[in-house]
Design brief:
about 180 residues; 4-stranded mixed beta sheet
Length: about 180
């Protein structure tokens, strides 16, 4: 299983949620069929067990539905992002809110700056995408500057404007807090 923040994490989570959801559904179906076939009634302990198994089924169904819209970086874009040196990169980042979920295929953390790549095709305005990502500011004391870009070319341009950091320790802390924002 890929660790959170690494390339391929969302794809692995989507696959895991689907498998767990199908396993739970099969248990529910088997329990109900056993009750109906062997006891000719729904008033058995098997149906109670099926109802309890419905809870993890629903949890995994919701997790899968939340991840279904996410599109990770292509392989060539991933290689291009990895070519950017001296920057902490986090991939497959999601930020949840009461209004929904916003996905960032790639986020760079460099010298107290958070630069997020907005997923193509999301119906969010750039202003909203910045507001979602600014939630990392609530979790750290340094209040990093947050920028959202539309392409890796724009990300590279923004990074080139920044001065080199004195120490990377703060950037690592910001990246860890960034991973706590979503799924």
């Amino acid at each position: 299983m890929t660790a959170k923040g690494n390339y391929g994490y969302a794809r692995g989570q989507k696959r895991l949620r689907l498998i767990l959801m199908l396993v739970c559904f099969l248990f529910i179906l088997t329990d109900v069929l056993i009750s109906l076939i062997f006891f000719q009634t729904k008033k058995t302990l098997f149906v109670v067990i099926a109802c309890v198994i419905a809870i993890p089924f629903a949890k995994n169904l919701i997790g899968y539905l939340m991840l279904i819209k996410f599109e990770p970086l292509s392989e060539e874009d991933y290689k291009e992002a990895e070519a950017i040196s001296n920057v902490i990169m986090a991939y497959d980042i999601s930020v949840t809110d009461t209004n929904g979920v916003l996905f960032y295929p790639c986020v760079a953390v460099y010298n107290n700056n958070v630069i997020g790549l907005l997923q193509q095709g999301q119906n969010q305005k750039k202003k909203d995408a910045v507001e979602y990502l600014k939630k990392v500011q609530e979790r750290v004391s340094t209040k990093p500057r947050v920028i959202v870009v539309d392409s890796l070319k724009d990300m590279r341009r923004e990074l080139s404007r920044l001065t080199p950091p004195k120490e990377k320790k703060g950037d690592v802390f910001i990246a860890e807090k960034l991973l706590e924002l979503g799924l």
